[in-house]
Amino acid sequence: MNWLRSVVAVLALVLLAGCPPSGVVCREGTTPCGLGCVDTANDVRNCGACGSACGASEQCASGVCTCTPGTTRCGAACVVLDYDARHCGACGNACATGQVCESGVCRASCSVGSTIRCGDSCVDPLTDLQHCGQCDTACEQGQTCRAGACVYEAVAACYWSGQAVGFSATTGSRGPLSDLGTNPGALASYQGTLLAADGTDNRLYQAVANVTGGGFSQVARANATGAVPNQVLVDAPYVYIANAASGTLQVLKAGVDAGDVIELDAGVQGGVRLGTVAELPFGMNSYPQGVAKLGDSLWVPLYGGFGASGADAGQVVVRVSVADPEMPVEAGRVSLKDIDLKPFDGGTPVARPWAITTHHGTLYVALNNLNPDTYAVEGPGLLARVDADAGVTVIDLGAADCLNPQWLAPVGDALAVSCGGRVTYSPTFTVESVTAAGLVLLDGQDQKVAAWSSACPADAGVLADGGVACMPMMPGRFAVKGQRILLGDQNAGRIVFLDVVDGGLVEVKGVGDALNLCPISPLTGAGNVSDVLATP
Amino acid sequence: MARAPTDSVALPPVDVPLPAGGSDPLPSHASPTVRDPSAAVTTIDAAARRGEAKDASELIGAAPGVVLSDAGGAGQRKTLSLRGAAPNAVLVLLDGVPLTGPGNAMDLSRIPTAALERVEVLRGGASARYGPGAMGGVVNLVTRAPGSTHAFGDVTQGSFMTTLLTVGGSAALPGGDGLLLLHGLHSNGDFSFRYDDKPALDGNPLVTQVRANNAALQGGGLLRYRAPLGATTADVLFEGTAERRGLAGTVQNPTPSAEQATLRGTLSARTHTEFDAGGSLSVLGYGRLDDTTLTGTAFGAGRLHQLESSAGVEAVFSRLVLQRHGLTALATVGGDWLREPSEANPSQGRVGAMLADEVLFLDGALAVNASARLDVAGPFVVFSPKAGVVAQLPFGLEVLANVGQASRPPSFQERYVVQGTLMPNPALRPERALSADVTAGWRHEKAALAVTGFGSLYEDLITYEYYPPALAKPFNVMTARAAGVEVEGRLSPAPWLDATLAYTFLSTQNLRDDPRYFLKALPYRPAHRLHARVAGGVALLRGHAELLFQSQQYMNRTETLALGPRAFVNVGVSSTPWRRPAVTVGLEVKNLLDVQTQDLDGYPLPPRAAFFTLALAWDGAER
Fold this sequence. Notes:
The complex is a heterodimer.
Chain A: H1 2-17, E1 23-24, E2 31-33, E3 36-38, E4 58-61, E5 64-67, E6 72-74, E7 77-79, E8 100-102, E9 105-107, E10 116-118, E11 121-123, E12 144-146, E13 149-151, E14 154-158, E15 163-167, E16 178-179, E17 184-190, E18 193-198, E19 203-209, E20 216-218, E21 221-224, E22 229-235, E23 238-243, E24 248-254, E25 261-263, E26 274-281, E27 292-294, E28 297-302, H2 307-312, E29 316-321, E30 329-335, E31 353-359, E32 362-367, E33 382-387, E34 391-396, E35 405-411, E36 414-419, E37 422-425, E38 431-435, E39 438-442, E40 448-453, E41 475-481, E42 484-489, E43 494-501, E44 504-509, E45 515-516, E46 529-534
Antiparallel strand pairs in A: 2-3, 4-5, 6-7, 8-9, 10-11, 12-13, 14-15, 14-46, 15-16, 17-18, 18-19, 19-20, 19-21, 21-25, 22-23, 23-24, 24-26, 27-28, 28-29, 29-30, 31-32, 32-33, 33-34, 35-36, 36-39, 37-38, 39-40, 41-42, 42-43, 43-44, 43-45
Chain B: E1 40-45, H1 56-60, E2 66-70, E3 78-82, E4 90-94, E5 97-98, E6 116-123, H2 127-130, E7 137-143, E8 150-158, E9 162-173, E10 176-187, E11 192-195, E12 207-210, E13 216-229, E14 232-246, E15 259-274, E16 280-295, E17 303-321, E18 325-339, E19 347-361, E20 366-377, E21 380-392, E22 397-408, H3 412-416, E23 431-443, E24 447-467, E25 471-494, E26 497-510, E27 512-513, E28 528-538, E29 541-550, E30 553-554, E31 562-563, E32 566-579, E33 582-590, E34 598-599, E35 603-604, E36 609-619
Parallel strand pairs in B: 4-7
Antiparallel strand pairs in B: 1-6, 2-3, 4-5, 6-7, 8-9, 8-36, 9-10, 10-13, 11-12, 13-14, 14-15, 15-16, 16-17, 17-18, 18-19, 19-20, 20-21, 21-22, 22-23, 23-24, 24-25, 25-26, 26-28, 28-29, 29-32, 30-31, 32-33, 33-36, 34-35
C-alpha cells in the first residue's frame, strides 16, 4: 500500500508542521489572573504574582511591595511616623495608652485644627492617603488625597496597548494599567469622568476610577465620533472634538440623548450622558487637529491632507463661533500659507499647524514645518501667534533645540512647547536616534528662555545583550500641574517631570529616571504615551 | 456508471493552456489548466460574457469563495480575496505565469475580459502545487487561443464617458497559427455619489459630490503564436498593458493630483512534448516587467518610480508508472527584482521542486493524490505538503477532499521599501496556512450542484501596526481561522436558458490576541456573498440579469466600524441580427437599482450606469 504510506507521510508532515498557537492573550504589561488580566507590576492586590497582595501602606513597584511615599518601614510594617502611635516620630517609639500621635509627638489629644482622631492617630483627612475624607479610607496606589477625596492627579493614555494609567504628579507614584478602548489618542476630564477619544474605533469612551481595585473602569456606553478624533475640549455642558480624518468639529452636550450612542458589552455604569448635538464640516482634506476656546469662539488648526495638493486644504486656523454651541458657525479663517517657514536643506515645507492653545488672551499654534509629501522635517520648529485683528506672528523656536513641535500649553506666565525632533531609522528600520527634541520655554514676551533636551544621558551605556539602555525619547503631548510639566514620550511610554522655576526648566525626572507608564510592545519595541491629562 | 479501464488511467493534468472548456460550476479534477486534481475549481467562460464584463475582476466575481475590493470606476484598482486570505495571498497567473512579484496583490483591472478565454479559480491553499503565495488559492487567467482565420472588433460606449475598444484577429501562420488582439479603455470616472459629511450626527442630509481625478486610460495587447514541432507543441505569448489613471483617494481625503502610470507585460514561451515511451514534458520560460510611477501622492518628493521584474523557468514531467501511479515532478528556478527610490533594490533567487503522485483505484472511481513542494526564495525555505482524494460515486455524485499547508512570503515592499508613512520590516517571516476542504458534487446533463465546506488556520499573518512617531510597520502578528461553506449551482433546463448561483458563507476569527481583537472577524471579509445570474434567449435576442449581494463587513480588527450590506443588480440585452459577418449590439445596465455604497475605507462605487456595445466578427472559414 505505497499510496497509503504516501498519504500518511504527507499528513504526518502537515501535522508535524504544527497548528498555530491560539488563545486570548493579555494586553501589554498585564498577565492573566483568573478570568482577567492584571498589571502585576503595579497592582497592590496582585503584586508580582496573582493574589500576592501588599500590606497596608505598601505600594507595588515593579512587582515588589515597598513602602508608599511618606511612610517608613518599621519591622515588617510601613508606618507614618507622623501619626502612628506605635511608632510615633521613630520606629518603636510607642505612645502611652490613651495618648495619640500627632506630628510625630505623643499627645493627650489631637491639637492641630485640621486633624481628626482615627484610633490613636491624628490625621488630616483632607490630605492623608490612609484616612482620606474619613478614618480608614485609604487611597489607591498612585492617587492623591485632595480635599478629602482620592484622585489621580494625572492620567496618561497608552495608545498602542489601549490603556490608561493614573499617577501622582507630586510623588511619581503610579497606579495599575487599566484597559480603555482600543487606541485612546486624546484625553479630557468631565466632572471627574475620564473621556478618551479613540483613534481606531472612532468613539469617545469614558472611564471612572475603580474604587475597589485601583485604576479605572471603562463605562459601558460610548459615543460615536467622526474619524480619528484627535483632541477633546471640555467646556461644560459641552464637549468639543476635532475629528481629523472626517474633517469635522463635533459638539456633544451633557444630559441629552442624541447622535450615535453605543452600549458596550462590558463596562460599569456611571460616567456622563453625552449626546452629539452638532457637527461642523471643514471640507475635504482639512484634517482639523486641535481646538481651543477664546471668548465665544473656537479656533481649529487645519493640518491639511497628504501631498502638496492635500496640504493646500489646510494651513489655516479656522474661527468657529459658538455663541450658540449647538449651532456652530464658521466665522473666518487665518491663513498660514504665506508665512516664512525658514526652510533649510533646500526644503519646501508647509506649516502643518498641529496643536493650539490660548495664552495671554491670544492663540498660539505649533507648526510642524514638514515636507508636504514625505513629512520630513524641513524647517525649524515654529509657533504662530494668531491674533484675529493683528494677524500672524511667527516665533522661531530654534532648529538646534526644537524640530517638529508637538504640543504647547501655558505654565504660569510662560509658554511651554514640546518638540518631537527629527527621527532617524537604522538600516533595519528601527528608531536609531531623535535629534532636536525636548521642550522649550518662552517667557511672557515670547522669548525663548530655556530649552531642555530629551537626549539620553551620555552615561546611559549599553546592555549586556547589546541593546541600548536608554531608548530615544520622542516628546509628545504634556500636561501642566502647577509649575510642573508632565511630558509624554511617544517612543518608550515614559513621563518626564520638569519644573518651571524662575523662568528656567529644572529636571525632576529626566529621561534616565523617567516614570515608565505605558508598556513597551514586544512586537514593535515601542510604547506610546498618546496624551497626558492633569485632572482639575 | 462507466469506469475507465486501469490501463487508460489519465495522468494528472500538468500544463497550461489548453483548449477552452465551457463554464463548469463543478470543481473538476479534469480541469486542464490546474495541476491539482482534487482541488475545488470554478471555471468561468470569458467568451460568453465579453459584452458585460470589462475586466477579469467582473468574471472572477461569479465564483464562490471570492471577495472583491474595488476602488470604484472602470480602470481603477480591483483585488480579490479568496477564502478569507488577503489579496496578497492569492496567486494570480496568466497562462501559468505569475502576474505579480512575490507576496503582492494583483490589480485585476489591468486584464481586460477581451484578452481572456476563461478564468479558473482554484480555492484553498495550493502552495503544494503552485508554490509560495497561493495561501488562499490560485486564479489562472487563460488567454484567448489562436484558431481558424477570423477577425473581430467591438466598441463599448457608456456612462462617465467610458469607452472600450477591442480589435483582433487570428490566422494560420507559417508553421502554426497566431492571434493578435489590441484593446483600449478610457473612462472619466467622474460619477456622482452621496456621502455623509457629518458622520457623527444623526439625521443630517447626505451631500452629493462628483468623483474627481478618477479617470483611467488603458491600452494593451496580446500576441500569441502556436506551432507543432513533431511531438512537441510550442506556444509563445506576449501580453502587456500601458495605463495612466488618477488616484482619487478617499471621499474625505481626496488626492486630486495623484496619478499612477504603469507599463507592464509578460512574455512567455512554453513547449509541451509527448514521448512515445510514455510521459510528457512541459517547459515554461517567462519574464515579467511592471514599471509603475506614482506622482502627486505622499510617496516621496511627489514621485515614486518602481520597476518590478521576474523571470523563471519551470519544467514539469509527468508519467504513468506501475499502471496506476500518475507521477508528476516539477522543478523551477527564477528570480525577482525590484528597483525603487530608496535604492534598497532588493532581489532574490528562487528554486523549487515538487513531487506529486496520483493513484487511481476502483477503475478510476477513486483517486488519491499526494504532493510535496519545497521552495527556497531568498532567505525563506518553505515546505508545502498536501493530500487529496477524488471519489466518483453513482448517480453523478462526486466527492473531493484536500488537506495541506500553504504559505505567502512577505513582499519586497513589506520587507524593504518605505512607502510614505509605511515602514518596511526586513525581519518578516512567511505567513502560513493549514487548509482542508471537502466538496460534494452532483452533476446532471441539465443541472449541477456542488457544496464545499472549508477551513483554514492562518499563522504569522502580517499586519501593519503603529510605529512611532506616526508611522506603521508590518509585523507577523496574527493567528486566525477562516471557515465556511461554498455552494455552486447551474441549471440549464433548455439550450436557450442558463442559470448559475454561487453563494459563500465565510466566518473568520482572530485566534490569538488580546481581548480587543480576540475572536473578532478579520476586516473586509463579509460573512455572506451571493452571485446569481440568469441568461437566456437566442441569437436574435438574448438577455441576462445578475445579482451580487454582499453582507456587512467590518473595516477594522475591533468590529467597531463596518460597511453596510449591498446588493447590485445588473441587466443586459443583446442581439445578433446578422451572422455573416456577425453583428451584435448590446445594452448593459450596471447597478440598476442605483445603490449608493462604498468599498474599502471611503471609496465610493459607481451609481447606475449604462453601456452600449457594438461587436463585429468575421469568420474566414465560413467564407
